[in-house]
Amino acid sequence: MVRIKICGVRTPADAKFAADAGADAVGLNFYPQSPRHVTPQQAAAIVRELPAFTSAVGVFVGMQLRQVCAIAFQLGLRGVQTYDEQPPTEDTFPFAHVPAFRVKDQTGLDHVRRFVDAATALKRKPAAVLIDSHVPGQFGGTGHAAPWELLQHFDVGVPLILAGGLTPENVAEAIALVRPWGVDVASGVESAPGVKDPDKVTRFVKNSRSS
Length: 211
Description:
Mean pLDDT: 92
Strand order of the largest sheet: 1-2-3-4-5-6-7-8
Helix content: 25-40%
Number of domains: 1
CATH superfamily: Aldolase class I
Number of strands: 10
Shape: globular
Distance between the termini: 9 Å
Strand content: 15-25%
Low-confidence stretches: 138-142
């Protein structure tokens, strides 16, 4: 069964709705330039609202790993998603590390493979990799689709999470083609940047599960 993460959640109510709709995880975006940005204080209120078996995952861009893990510890996050060119310099345990990659062609996938191989050699194998679309200067939530066809037989030895341009209308097709371990959505279930649409969230989860 495919796992589902609703990313860029900004309110406790949206987090609870996503969990009740069947999402396995919610993403909290700590990147200040994102329209979905939350502070650690805002994130704490969101995490408090989550049911026992729904995970909170932090999304970080350009932050030192030690600070990332400090925030994750403070909030009790399950995992940390980062956009890094190189494998982590420190162990992220007990937080599941999900490096995210913006991919537009085979060269991008080759980079993902080298990253995972290098991290594994350092005994810091990622918990999963997230493949997002490549939009210059933007980190997630762009609404642009990742290259599904390239990902059909892509296997780097860790679970693959598909992101980028997913919507309630196309997620079933994407899952059927790529067969990812999980899917991640932000803008595809919103009525405006950072504002989750309950109907879209409900349909996204339902269509993901029906694949």
